[in-house]
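Need a sequence for this fold. Nothing fancy.
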């Protein structure tokens, strides 16, 4: 087990199934981020319902796209993200599902034996997709927010609800009526729960 501390504690094991959310840089006002981080820190290492409420508030703010660019709406940028999510599949993790929203990404995977560790996996995904996206957009600077939200999925019941949450995110955000209509959603056929 490895514990990383930045603004939020990150509890990483060498195995397990994880739910990760990462977002574009500058997509939320710093005052809202501070408020949510305080709630998440308070419940970070427990199964406290407050952490779920804090995450839901965080995700609702992202879905509203109240600030920042929506680069992931660009089909070419979304395709870059898809490629970088599929690349570690079968090497570092077994890819269960993801959803690429206009300004954030939800990702669920199960770590494979001899993986590089979540921190390095996510660094690679974000670094490669940021570099390729910045080139395509002819821009410089931070593309992704440094930190990601991550959660170890504790059992099959929780996995079911997390997958459902990820797949239904574009529906809940009012982008489509059926999750299968969102072009940037993927779910391994063995895990489709809807």
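Here you go.
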């Amino acid at each position: 087990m490895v514990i990383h501390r930045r603004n939020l504690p990150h509890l990483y094991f060498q195995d397990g199934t994880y739910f990760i959310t990462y977002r574009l840089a500058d997509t939320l006002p710093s005052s809202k981020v501070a408020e949510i981080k305080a709630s998440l820190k308070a419940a970070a290492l427990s199964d406290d319902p407050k952490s779920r409420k804090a995450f839901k508030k965080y995700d609702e703010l992202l879905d509203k796209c109240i600030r920042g660019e929506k680069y992931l709406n660009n089909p070419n940028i979304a395709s870059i993200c898809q490629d970088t999510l599929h690349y570690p599949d079968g090497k570092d993790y077994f890819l269960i599902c993801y959803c690429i929203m206009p300004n954030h990404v939800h990702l669920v995977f199960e770590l494979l034996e001899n993986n590089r560790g979540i921190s390095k996996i996510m660094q690679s995904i974000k670094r490669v997709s940021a570099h390729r996206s910045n080139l395509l957009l002819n821009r410089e600077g931070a593309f992704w927010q440094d930190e990601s939200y991550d959660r170890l999925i504790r059992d099959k019941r929780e996995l079911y609800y997390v997958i459902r949450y990820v797949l239904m995110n574009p529906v809940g955000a009012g982008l489509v009526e059926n999750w299968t209509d969102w072009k940037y959603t993927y779910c391994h056929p063995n895990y489709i729960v809807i």
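For context: The chain has a mean pLDDT of 86.
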